[in-house]
Design goal:
Blueprint lengths: L2 H22 L3 H21 L3 H26 L3 H6 L5 H27 L9 H12 L1 H22 L11 H6 L2 H4 L13
Helix pairs in contact: 1-2, 1-5, 2-3, 2-5
């Protein structure tokens, strides 16, 4: 077994373990951290397979979107922030474990890439980003547009589900402010002048 194969199996094992932890932990913060680790593991596997664009897109889109999803969970469930702050130190071991594993994965990907480059592996002609763009925007343009519309509907639905109009919020109506006349804001009062007695 070569070094690259061993690293690939290691990333696959970490990915499966992190995915299982996402669905088995009870704490939503821990689940989000394990989900970040699983996305990083999948991105590392894609990097090793030569799909750099997909790996970077996975990290930028999904790891970034995890926090947005987690915020939606907080808004929907009304999680008690004071309780989360009280148990903040309990998140440190899970966070340090996930961060350490992500660091080890990045180091292994760099080392495996350096060994492949030193071994004289030939690079394919052209760019995989160009090939992916041709597939998305030429061969599969209608499914791509359908997926984009479905994602837009999901975004609008998530906003509609979490939108709450609060009674204690002060709001401004610029249309009503423009209609205001001077007499509505300023009241002139005629008062007789006072005379001092000497």
């Amino acid at each position: 077994m070569t070094f690259a194969n061993a690293v690939w199996y290691l990333f696959a094992a970490i990915l499966v373990f992190a995915a299982l932890r996402v669905i088995t932990v009870k704490n939503p913060v821990h689940a989000a951290l394990w989900l970040v680790l699983s996305f990083f593991s999948a991105a590392a596997i894609w990097l090793m397979l030569g799909a750099e664009f997909l790996a970077i897109a996975l990290v930028l889109v999904y790891v970034g979107a995890v926090m947005v999803r987690f915020l939606f969970v907080i808004m929907m469930l009304d999680v008690d922030f004071d309780d989360l702050r009280r148990h903040f130190k309990s998140y440190i071991p899970v966070g340090a474990t996930v961060g350490g594993l992500v660091l080890v994965e990045m180091i292994l990907v760099v080392v495996a890439g350096a060994k492949d480059a030193a071994g004289g592996g030939s690079l394919p002609a052209g760019s995989n980003t160009k090939a992916l763009g041709r597939l998305l925007y030429v061969d599969y343009v209608y499914p791509f547009e359908l997926a984009a519309v479905l994602l837009l509907i999901a975004i609008v639905a998530a906003i509609a589900l979490t939108w709450r109009r609060r009674k204690d919020t002060r709001r401004q109506d610029p249309g009503e402010q423009v209609k205001v006349k001077r007499g509505d804001r300023v009241r002139l009062i005629a008062m007789p002048a006072e005379k001092r007695e000497r």
